[in-house]
Amino acid sequence: MSGRSRAAVLLAAVVTFGAVLVPSAQAAPRAPDTAVLDGARLQQTKLRLDRGDPQLHRALRDLTARADNWLGQGPWTVVDKPKPAPGGDAHDYLSQAPYWWPSTAPTADNPWGCPYVQRDGQRNPEVDSGTDRQDVEKVFDSTYDLSLAWYYTGRRTYPEKAAQVLRTWFLAPATRMNPNLNHAQFIPCKYDGRAIGIIDFSQSYTSVVDALAILGTGAPGWTKSDRTGMTRWNSDFLGWLKNSAFGKEEGAAANNHGTFYDMQLAALAYATGDRALARRTVLDARAKRIDPQIAGDGSQPQELARTRSWHYSTFDLVAYTRLAAIGRHVGVDLWSYQGPDGQGLSKAVDYLLPAATGAAPWPHPELEFHRYAASDVVHAAADAGDGAAQKAVRKLEAPPGGDLWALRPAAEQLDSIAG
User: Fold this and answer.
1) Confidence class of residue 4 from pLDDT cuts 50, 70 and 90?
2) What is the Cα–Cα distance from 86 to 105, expressed in whole angstroms?
3) Among 18, 43, 244, 320, who pairs with 22 as Cys (CB 3.0-4.6 Å)?
4) What is the pLDDT, as a whole number, of residue 28?
5) Burial (Cβ within 10 Å: 0-12, 13-18, ≥19) of residue 11
6) In sequence order, what are the beta bridge partners of 308?
């Protein structure tokens, strides 16, 4: 083989490798109009990756590994559960309350083992089979990972897979989900659905809202019809959240459920063009959420009362920090707000720092402590200018799968418990 031929082979190998892990050089990407993520920051991160930033490339390897894992999975559909939701419509979403357990062994006359009794923080494994809960989380996670991986690499298989997943779950007439949560977190023999089940979507669906904005910057395989269809679905879902009895009840919740409801409402309002509702929701969270939920020392008394107090303290702050991110898009700085007792988001994050950095044990009940559960909210506080959080960042524990904050700087629920 001649020197020129060997050089051509080597060049082809480099190009092939680069197509997998290295973003292609191209015109400056559009900044997506994301509801939670900062689209301009994503755009700058993409440009830094194109210039070869080594730290970002390490994070990109973790992100593309997650995206590659989704390529061979799904799509999932709400209509393939073994039994339809109460009422008989297979297109209605169904999930089961995670902390409710049968009190007796099932029999032919009592196949569920009713009545069901509550065991707070103890997840009943039967909720992960026979309903839509596990599949919808895969829809949320896959579309987010795939859209981000496409934005940073330009690899078209990622958005094509995301489009397949989204069309199957939300758009195709034969397989689409109805835009309501009337049967979320039902309790066998007790309730056909509960307002509390809205958290099945509010804790993660805003990632899909941002994924749609990312795909909307020109992703291959994501069509104008797809964009129109998802906007219509989100508008219908937003209407249900605002006007249904369950939506109103969840909006009145005083703990993390209320915070997540506000975060989901604001994101959907922003994404569907109602910026006034998004702004009003963030502004109202100051007196409606922060004042009663966060104490002057930064603790969250309602979350500390749970058997999984560490999980729920970090969980609630995921919603708060994402709501604050939405606020910045509509001119509201939620991080600067202080309540009548000095409470605020930075103080709430600072309350977690000793345990988050490993400097001290968590002094409250917790069935399954994961230090990394606080990592994203500490990152968020550091980015917002919290000096104590900035010092703590280097001491954080990376979550399983790597720390992706640099590529998707918006807090996620990093430990696995649902509810």
Assistant:
1) very low
2) 23
3) 18
4) 60
5) exposed
6) 366
